[in-house]
Amino acid sequence: MKEHQDWNECYRDGQLPWDTGRPSLELQRVLSRIKIPPGRALDIGCGTGTNSVWLAEQGFDVTGIDVAPLAIHRAEERAKAAGVKATFLVGDVLHLPDEINSIEFFFDRGCYHAVRRVAPDAYAPAVAKCLSSSAHGLILAGNAREPRTPGPPVVTEEGIRHELGLSFRILDLHEFRFDDAPGVTESFLGWSCLVEKK
Question: Could you give the number of structural domains in the chain?
Fold first, then answer.
């Protein structure tokens, strides 16, 4: 994958190996275990809005953000079809708009591991700025123990602990497998990282 990916082109061409069309099983598992009460939520790199819609169905006040305008358009259509209310914005996680604030829970399925390739120490402080004082987040990232080409960008445990530790306490870090996506034959190894704002 190129360092400066044209994400909108990926959505236009249908090159979406990360888009399962279903809410993340790991997100569902973690939220069922830790019982975060519904509040203001941010879906970072929301893509076509699958996880945003699921969070809205659980009672969260969701904002999804993505750099690809076509992804945001599809997310809006998905939310409308599902009959849920969610806000979607085109934007960059390293320069979040001012209207994203007081977030109590954020979810990131794959944005961090892409952003860190060009700005490894910028992600955590940028996200932390929009969070409430007791906010939690769940970040899913590719695992360097099993790099694959093609496959998601990967990070080591040490990299996660350093980079996310700049602004977050890591409450739980464990390995998991990303959900299968249409046309993708492998189940990629990842990190599931539950964090709390420092």
Answer: 1
